[in-house]
Amino acid sequence: MTNIVEARSLYKSFGNFVALDNIDLSxxxxxxxxxxxxxxxxxxxxxxxxxxxxxxxxxICVAGQDPRVARHKLMEDVCFIADVGILPxxxxxxxxxxxxxxxxxxxxxxxxxxxxxTTEIPSNKRIKNLSKGMVTQLHLAIxxxxxxxxxxxxxxxxxxxxxxxxxxxxxxxxxxxDGNRTILISTHQVEEIETLLSHLVFxxxxxxxxxxxxxxxxxxxxxxxxxxxxxxQADALNPIYIRNLLGKKSYTxxxxxxxxxxxLGDVHTPTVADLFVAKMRGQRNESV
Amino acid sequence: MSRFxxxxxxxxxKKEFWENRILMIGAPAVLAVVIFVVNFLxxxxxxxxxxxxxxxxxxxxxxxxxxxxxxxVIILLCLPFLVVYFFCSVIYLLNALYSDRKDMSILFxxxxxISNLQTVISKIVTVxxxxxxxxxxAIAVLYGLSIGYxxxxxxxxxxxxxxxxxxFSAVAINLSVVYFFIATxxxxxxxxxxxxxxxxxxxxxxxxxxxxxVYFLLGFFEGFxxxxxxxSNWAQTRFDPDNFIIVDYSGISDRLFSYDxxxxxxxxxILISGSVYMRxxxx
Lengths: 288, 283
What we know:
By secondary structure, chain A is α/β, with parallel strands linked by helices. Helix content of chain A is 34%, strand content 30%. Chain A has helices spanning 43-50, 71-74, 93-103, 109-117, 132-144, 162-176, 190-193, 214-220, 231-236, 258-262, 272-287; strands at residues 3-14, 17-28, 32-36, 57-62, 78-81, 150-154, 182-187, 199-204, 207-213, 221-226, 241-245, 248-254, 265-268. In chain A, the strands form three sheets. Chain A has a six-stranded mixed β-sheet, with helices on both faces. In chain A, helix 4 (109-117) packs antiparallel against helix 5 (132-144) and helix 5 (132-144) runs parallel beside helix 6. Helix content of chain B is 82%, strand content 0%. The longest helix of chain B is centred in the middle third of the chain and has 41 residues, at 116-156. The chains are: A alpha/beta, B mainly alpha. Chain A binds chain B through residues 51, 53-55, 70-73, 75-76, 79-82, 84-92, 95, 98-100, 102-105, 139, and chain B through 2-3, 7-8, 10-12, 14-15, 18-19, 100, 103-105, 107-116, 118, 280-281.
């Protein structure tokens, strides 16, 4: 499988703060990829540098182009919804559609309108009069009607209530994703997107902590609810994270065979959220 | 530029219009209404005799005049509109690359396949070519209504009104001179346009303070270090009424193809390029 995003040694600092610390990033074509990290980890900087909105050192190739050379050309193949990237408040809904239809060669207005007809968004209202959830719905309607190879979403559901959030991801998966398109979503609300993802990237303090597809994650990582009498054995296998769970201890292991782990207790694949915590905590313990 | 078409560019101009319709249409329209209402109120205070004298004065002044030679008077009558146009354009240019950064909608604009150069050019075309249309339209409506009013009153006083017909044709014919005067004046002031765009693209807040502050700081620095006043002298000659006010087509074309215009266009273009560059990674 070819990679639609290929980045090497990305480095970006703001004064003394290093936002991206020589990271490598590759996203396979067709993946639904989650870029997951705590606030301030460098998610937005990483995404912005991939689409030419941030001056960054290193080599980047997105959809066959260097985003720093001609952002506007890249934007014919890439769509972007920013975390705070609100649509301009003074535009009317119909004017947004007029504008995108005129400037974007791959926009299909009828598709956007079909999507909007399933919502309660009135086309003659100005954006400032829409609720936050409606603005996101509108932006999604526009983006879903543009035939691009990569969709970049930076915390797209930030500040929305649970109904809008669920609907957003349902639509994305059911109405947009077709197996060829690549979606890159950043979030710190892991639980919401974990069932969607086929690829996982963890980022913390400007460094990539994990970059793997979900199938590999299931093979490499395992969580074991260790029996009380096997704790010493478990400790000896270098767990990356230990936590207390219902009076028992739950160990997270990296790269230890399941056959060995099954002797210690109940083995299962950790959820993305648990793995995230394990990797972040593990990382921090190491650096202390 | 891969496939940048007229259709796309037209959409950029429409967007500028949607965003700035208050500056582009609202301001000259309000001015026209204010002038008309004030004139109407003044006229309604006058006695019939005084009004008749006034209409007679207008009428006789324009009577028999070749409309092409009355442009200076028409431009003078338009002066309030020109002043309003100037200040509205300053506000427009200061906000042009600033307001979308402030409300973060720049992230939406930047997610479209439109380059920063195309964006900035659309803003310059707006202020040179598009906006003056609305100002001239407001002038046309104001003088159309005013002359109509004078005609009705004059007719009631059984006056000889052929001069008003001359005045009407003078206004109609000279509106195009007014339009080209505004357009070439903006080009003449392109260094100012570029200066405002630079600070619009650069400032995190208060672009006007930056634009004014840096100008005075540079002037002060120049005076202090070199003991010269090149910057302020140069800026002043741009605004010198002798250079600035033009009342006919030959004056407009003379200015358009003058050496000073060329220098201004070069300086303006350098500053505008700077604003395009700053917009690249604007936050």
